[in-house]
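[step 3/7] inverse_fold.run input=structure_tokens len=253
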């Protein structure tokens, strides 16, 4: 029984010999291929989110039957995993072999990852569901490793540095995306939503001091728009992480 359960566990579309399949054989629908299906899936996920995505909806967009899609993928999870790796291909990766300072290259990777997370709200939850071993994910991971090695940190500290930077970016980009999703649902602009939320929060019992201190910190930080505020916080947090790496390089441990 235990062995049967183990066999039923899904691993990854990239490990099951299905990632390059062009179709199951004769009779597959004309005008379709794996790349087109993946591209349309990503576009629908952007428009409708994970909750609104279905194989039936995809088939309708492709103007085929749902069964036609299954010539190219076995399951919906296979397709989601393919779409997840496809959008990671939007990242412009620096050349770790180039004669360029690691700090700039690390910032390029961090900014690119944040942008992809915000641009594709469905990426964040899927990144935690799958193994993330498609070619674009692997290229991203490899580039990160090579850039972090250029810092001069000892090998046993490299994974900690990667976690500090890119788990921060993942969390920041995810929360930023949640904010913009809420804004979209209200029909307001981000700045209108922000002002409305602050006004409503100010009326909450016991919130006076929190609001006062928050407004003082936001005024000191500067930024006329929500986007400017988010960008400034992200930049400074990234500066702190880079400074932390620089400090740890000087420690002999």
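[step 3/7] decode complete -> sequence:
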């Amino acid at each position: 029984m235990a062995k049967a359960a183990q066999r039923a566990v899904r691993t990854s579309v990239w490990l099951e010999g299905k990632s390059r399949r062009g179709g199951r054989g004769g009779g597959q629908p004309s005008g379709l291929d794996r790349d087109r299906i993946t591209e349309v899936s990503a576009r629908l996920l952007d428009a409708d989110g994970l909750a609104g995505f279905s194989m039936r909806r995809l088939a309708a967009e492709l103007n085929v039957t749902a069964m036609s899609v299954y010539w190219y993928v076995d399951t919906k999870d296979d397709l989601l995993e393919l779409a997840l790796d496809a959008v990671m291909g939007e990242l412009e990766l620096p050349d770790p072999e180039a004669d360029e300072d690691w700090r700039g290259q690390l910032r390029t990777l961090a900014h690119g990852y944040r942008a992809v997370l915000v641009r594709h709200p469905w990426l964040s939850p899927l990144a935690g569901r799958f193994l993330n071993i498609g070619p674009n994910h692997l290229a991203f991971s490899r580039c990160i490793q090579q850039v972090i090695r250029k810092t001069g940190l000892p090998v046993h500290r490299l994974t900690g540095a990667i976690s500090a930077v890119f788990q921060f970016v993942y969390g920041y980009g995810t929360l930023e995306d949640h904010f913009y999703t809420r804004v979209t649902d209200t029909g307001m602009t981000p700045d209108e939503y922000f002002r409305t939320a602050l006004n409503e929060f100010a009326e909450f019992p016991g919130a006076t001091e929190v609001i006062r201190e928050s407004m003082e910190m936001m005024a000191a930080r500067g930024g006329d728009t929500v986007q400017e505020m988010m960008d400034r916080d992200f930049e400074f947090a990234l500066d702190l992480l880079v400074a932390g790496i620089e400090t740890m390089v000087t420690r002999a441990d």
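[step 4/7] annotate
The radius of gyration is 22 Å.
Residues 4 and 10 are 12 Å apart (CA to CA).
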